[in-house]
Design brief:
Rossmann fold; five-stranded parallel β-sheet; single chain; 5 strands
Amino acid sequence: MGVILDSSAVIAGERKGETAAELLVRLRQQLGPGDIAISTVSVVELEHGIWRARDAAQAERRRRFLEDVFSVVPACPLTFEIARRAGRIDGELRRRGVVISFQDLIIGVTALEFDYAVATPNVRHFETIPDLVLKPL
């Protein structure tokens, strides 16, 4: 089974000073074989981090790291089907009083649509999404 990386999994690698290659080696050791991808909403979150850097040097380090990650980890697009499924799941959850962030909802539903798991250090952000397989990091 492939995995969609939660944005926080990529951020953790950057904060540890890993290269993109080191991050992928570590993740493959933890997760085993299978495809590794990200959601396009993670691209937004990760790009946002570049522009929120405290200084130009940190922004440049983040930019280089993410360009390396983006060159080897494919981004799964936000499709019409994912949007509809996310709307249904969000409506059902909110009707029960359960609120999940938009970003985590889209990452989780992208994984469902591609029949992937979500690899994340933040399992509780995703555990309310029905039928979603989680791979704790």
